[in-house]
Amino acid sequence: MGKILVTGGAGYIGAHTVKRLVSQGREVVVLDNLSTGHRDFARFCDFVQGDVRDPVLLDSVFSSEPIDAVIHFAAASQVGESVRNPLYYYNNNVSGAICLVSAMARHMVDTLIFSSSCAVYGPPFDCLLTEVHPTAPLSPYAATKAMIERILADMARVTPFQYVALRYFNAAGADPDAEVGERHRPETHLIPLVLQTALGQRDHLDIFGDDYPTEDGTAIRDYVHVLDLADAHIAALAYLRGGGASRAINLGNGQGHSVRQVIDAARKITGRDIPVRTAPRREGDSTRLVGDATLARELLGWRPRYADIGEIIATAWAWHSKEAARSAPVL
Ligand code: UDP
Known about the structure:
Layout: E1 3-7, H1 12-23, E2 28-32, E3 46-49, H2 55-64, E4 67-72, H3 79-84, H4 86-106, E5 111-117, H5 140-158, E6 162-168, E7 170-172, H6 190-198, E8 205-208, E9 220-221, E10 223-225, H7 226-241, E11 247-251, E12 257-258, H8 259-270, E13 276-279, E14 288-289, H9 294-300, H10 309-326
This protein binds uridine-5'-diphosphate.
């Protein structure tokens, strides 16, 4: 077996996947420009600092390492930022993927696992979303993921190239050893913000909208543990190796939790006060996003090990407590 190139392996989901691959004896090279990644997250393997849009660098990595598969995480991932700066997103994400796939073709590397998102789906959202649900990206970020999926599908139709696009629902939690975890600057995600509030690093948490048509009025998401996501990437590689067809596959827990349910679970886990305030809805947020992961179960044999929101939050709590002891967060 050759090495696996992991682009964006110094980011949140990438770092957990790398740690998992290395623990299973796979050799990994991380390529990350560290625009949002962290050098210490990529300490378990070979590391190259650079951008996937740099063809000279890609040629040198593919020529000097026996790479036989690529897992592509490197991308900008904030919906709000993508609305404000769409060109950056199309350039970084779409051009980045084109450069990477072109380099793979030059070096005859055919296998790619792509980090996609449930953000590619369009309304209606009041059902379990399956892979055949209509796609209708609502933000430039989501549009980049849908465009890249289309590019990969077109490539797979006419060349030996094969891929799996994994459409994640809400990645959450951290490595149970707390060696890597979630560190976004600035942080915009619910669970880290809730836990930073529990740690006293923030004086309150804003609940973005309590007038949604849900039981408690707050929006519902499908939180899936980052290590379960990591395992799915490894299972997707095996699926392609076993002759599986190129396609998109959902990764979710199939269960929805509201913002208030997440906060209540965090209060239980941390035993801390978590002051909240109600704020207006965040632009672009939908009421409910819950995924159907039947296909992942059938094709990849994937079953999330962390199905309980309390367990997911507990791993994140251990990580954020450790981070807090180490340094103050950038708010
Ligand atoms: N959310 C919130 N307060 C925050 C951050 C997030 O109420 O400070 C809500 C957000 O509106 C959404 C859910 O929590 O309904 C999950 O948001 P997150 O940004 O974690 O993930 P997204 O679903 O937007 O990818």
